[in-house]
């Protein structure tokens, strides 16, 4: 399967990149074609809300000329898109948020019967690291992702929050077996599985078909 991962942290070797790296290793070992996009290295301007993209539902058709279009095209060509971000001020990193806003150009007629999306039917997942725990912290971020999946007509297929990552660039290797490939998920306030076992998500018929 073709899987695009979006590294939404500025840090190439930070906490988010470390957890994403573990997941990517497993996916590659399973024979999947994984391509990571390091968003911080890309030029992505903020959506202007001009609405020009709405005039052509079959194309991205954004008036801005930067890297967003090629990233969105790669997402359209993928079977699965894994979004990742550090929690920043109870939300997504700016790098990821810029791309999320530009995905406005993929959708037409939101909230109407003829709602369409160039990502319709894709599987999308979210992986977030944060300094705090889940509660009173990142609930809103994960709720937003649910709504984003609905907006994109994509299937939200997995979510993972790894908390208590307060030391920059030092994701402890001890957390790895808790994240992957554990067939179980320990109850822990620092690693929060939401909805499903992330490892299970990557089994046939779940995140991956
Ligand atoms: C500007 C800034 C804002 C942050 N806001 C939050 C937050 O709202 N909630 C949280 O749990 N952690 C927050 N953190 C901590 C980071 O999310 C956490 O350390 C994360 O694992 C960093 O990932 P990275 O190494 O990939 O950058 C913040 C860190 C910074 C620098």
Write up this protein.
- It is a single chain.
- This protein is of the alpha/beta class and 209 residues long.
- The chain has one domain (2-201): Flavodoxin domain (Rossmann fold, 3-Layer(aba) Sandwich), CATH 3.40.50.360.
- The chain has helices at residues 15-29, 68-77, 94-102, 139-152, 176-179, 198-201, and strands spanning 2-7, 33-38, 80-86, 107-108, 116-117, 123-129, 155-162, 191-194.
- The strands form 2 sheets. Strands 2-1-3-6-7-8 form a 6-stranded mixed β-sheet, sandwiched between helices. Strands 4-5 form a two-stranded antiparallel sheet.
- Strand 6, helix 4 and strand 7 form a beta-alpha-beta unit.
- The longest helix is centred in the N-terminal third of the chain and has 15 residues, at 15-29.
- The radius of gyration is 17 Å and the shape is globular.
- The structure holds flavin mononucleotide.
- Flavin mononucleotide binds next to helix 1.
Write a brief caption for the model.
With 209 residues, this protein is an alpha/beta fold. Helices cover 27% and strands 20% of the residues. The chain has helices at 15-29, 68-77, 94-102, 139-152, 176-179, 198-201; strands at 2-7, 33-38, 80-86, 107-108, 116-117, 123-129, 155-162, 191-194.
């Amino acid at each position: 399967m073709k899987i695009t991962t979006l590294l939404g942290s500025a840090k190439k070797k930070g906490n988010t990149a470390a957890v994403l790296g573990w997941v990517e290793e497993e996916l590659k070992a399973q024979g999947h074609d994984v391509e990571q996009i390091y968003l911080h290295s890309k030029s992505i301007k903020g959506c202007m809300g001009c609405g020009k993209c709405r005039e052509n539902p079959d194309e991205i058709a954004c008036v801005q000329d930067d890297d967003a279009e090629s990233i969105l095209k790669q997402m359209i060509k993928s079977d699965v898109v894994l979004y990742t971000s550090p929690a920043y001020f109870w939300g997504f990193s700016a790098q990821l948020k810029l791309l999320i806003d530009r995905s406005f150009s993929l959708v037409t007629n939101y909230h109407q019967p003829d709602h369409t999306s160039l990502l319709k039917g894709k599987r999308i997942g979210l992986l977030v690291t944060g300094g705090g725990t889940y509660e009173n912290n990142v609930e809103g971020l994960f709720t937003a992702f649910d709504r984003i999946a609905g907006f994109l007509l994509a299937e939200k297929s997995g979510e993972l929050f790894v908390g208590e990552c307060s030391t920059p660039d030092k994701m402890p290797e001890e957390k790895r077996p808790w994240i992957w490939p554990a067939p179980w998920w320990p109850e822990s306030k620092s690693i929060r599985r939401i909805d499903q076992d992330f490892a299970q998500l990557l089994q046939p018929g779940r995140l991956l078909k």
